[in-house]
């Protein structure tokens, strides 16, 4: 066979292999956030930088499978992010992995990759059998020095760092715990019946749930949807808002890259509004004008129309009550009687406007029947803003699964 024929045969073989691949489904998500400055009301809790270290991050997938891709994000980096080596493995709990179920990752056939500022890298497919709701870990060797410019603040899961290249190590002899996530933004699995993306704030991110136990309401939703072969991607960001940036870009700004830019998304659940109403005039946004029903309604309507353009079903949720939120802390001021009037008017609009393909009434699920402006005591984590484990389970249980897949 001459060189030209060999090249053609190789190209055709590669094309056939590529066409036989997929479809790919997002089965886990940690939405990227930029580091904020030291004068913000909350600390980042992130390391200053990584230099010749390995970062290992455990997580639970929603949909299982046999072939995987890992997405590494440098969305907010101002310099290239260099990955020296990477691995994907089944977790053995804590910092440990199963050494017999660990696979080196490659990027374009190479063991590492340099990701430009603002970019992302998708690994080559790697074979490893992981069941639905199985726990895995991604390890990255970071030659550095590099700051965690792209991170996720409320991991609800402990990550670990150690010196040197230890991506294949069964455990770290000297591990430093890390309460935030960095760089790893998404896991893709081959196959499945698609995914549901939850676009939300700290109530979606799971603040108030027990760390390390997968008890956020999207986790419970994933347990309900797993028998149907449908994945759940938690795109919650603590402090997220629909209309303005908070502890991350506004949902209006990030919905394209969070939802529409990836394959297999069937529905998006929009669980936002608490911070749009609560932040203005409080410690998070003291100089902002109060939110109005009209502004929020316009934002919801536009997001819904954008979803329909992409053929994605859009489910709205009402805004839960938050009287007494963060009372007695430096963050007090999130709630007022005037803000609650706006919340109730917004909820009436969500229920009656017909903007969404379906509505989940989280307000009705979580409110105290004896005092509807506050959370039901049995569902309250204690800060009067975030539910606890029981409340999150009730939220997930209120969702009609058939509305997510029509």
TrEMBL record:
Domain of life, per the record? Bacteria
Q: Which Gene3D superfamilies match?
A: SGNH hydrolase (3.40.50.1110)
MF terms from GO for this chain are:
hydrolase activity, acting on ester bonds
Output this protein's name: Lipase
SUPFAM superfamilies assigned: SGNH hydrolase
Which PANTHER family does the UniProt entry name for this protein?
GDSL-LIKE LIPASE/ACYLHYDROLASE, PUTATIVE (AFU_ORTHOLOGUE AFUA_2G00820)-RELATED (PTHR43784), GDSL-LIKE LIPASE_ACYLHYDROLASE, PUTATIVE (AFU_ORTHOLOGUE AFUA_2G00820)-RELATED (PTHR43784:SF2)
Give the organism's phylogenetic lineage. Answer: Bacteria, Pseudomonadati, Pseudomonadota, Betaproteobacteria, Burkholderiales
* InterPro entries with a match to the protein in the record: GDSL_Rv0518-like, SGNH_hydro, SGNH_hydro_sf
């Amino acid at each position: 066979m001459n060189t030209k024929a060999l090249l053609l045969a190789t190209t055709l073989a590669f094309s056939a292999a590529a066409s036989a691949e997929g479809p790919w489904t997002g089965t886990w998500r940690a939405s990227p956030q930029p580091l904020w400055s030291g004068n913000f009301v909350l600390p980042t809790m992130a390391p200053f930088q990584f230099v010749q270290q390995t970062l290992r991050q455990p997580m639970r997938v929603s949909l299982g499978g046999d072939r995987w891709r890992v997405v590494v994000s440098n969305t907010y980096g101002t310099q290239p992010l260099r990955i020296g080596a990477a691995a994907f493995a089944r977790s053995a709990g804590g910092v440990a992995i199963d050494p017999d179920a660990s696979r080196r990752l490659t990027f374009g056939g190479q063991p590492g990759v340099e990701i430009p500022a603002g970019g992302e890298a998708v690994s080559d497919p790697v074979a490893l059998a992981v069941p639905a709701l199985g726990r895995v870990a991604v390890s990255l060797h970071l030659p550095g020095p590099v700051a965690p410019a792209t991170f996720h603040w409320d991991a609800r899961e402990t990550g670990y760092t150690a010196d040197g290249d230890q991506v294949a190590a069964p455990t770290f002899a000297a591990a430093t715990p890390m309460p935030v996530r960095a760089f790893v933004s998404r896991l893709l699995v081959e196959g499945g019946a698609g995914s549901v993306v939850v676009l939300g704030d700290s109530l979606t991110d799971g603040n108030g749930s027990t760390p390390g136990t997968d008890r956020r309401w999207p986790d419970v939703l994933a347990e309900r949807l797993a028998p149907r072969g449908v994945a759940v991607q938690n795109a919650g960001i603590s402090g997220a808002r629909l209309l303005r940036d908070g502890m991350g870009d506004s949902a209006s700004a990030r919905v394209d890259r969070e939802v529409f830019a990836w394959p297999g998304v069937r529905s998006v659940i929009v669980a936002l509004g608490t911070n749009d109403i609560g932040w203005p005039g409080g410690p998070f946004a003291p100089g902002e004008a109060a939110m109005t029903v009209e502004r929020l309604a316009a934002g919801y309507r536009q997001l819904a129309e954008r979803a329909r353009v992409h053929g994605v079903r859009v489910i709205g949720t009402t805004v839960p009550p938050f009287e007494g939120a963060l009372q007695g802390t430096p963050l007090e001021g999130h709630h007022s009687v005037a803000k609650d009037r706006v919340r109730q008017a917004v909820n009436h609009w969500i229920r009656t406007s017909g903007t969404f393909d379906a509505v989940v009434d989280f307000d009705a699920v979580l409110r105290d029947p004896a005092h509807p402006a506050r959370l039901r005591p049995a569902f309250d984590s204690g800060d009067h803003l975030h539910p606890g484990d029981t409340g999150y389970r009730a939220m997930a249980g209120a969702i009609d699964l058939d509305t997510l897949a029509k």
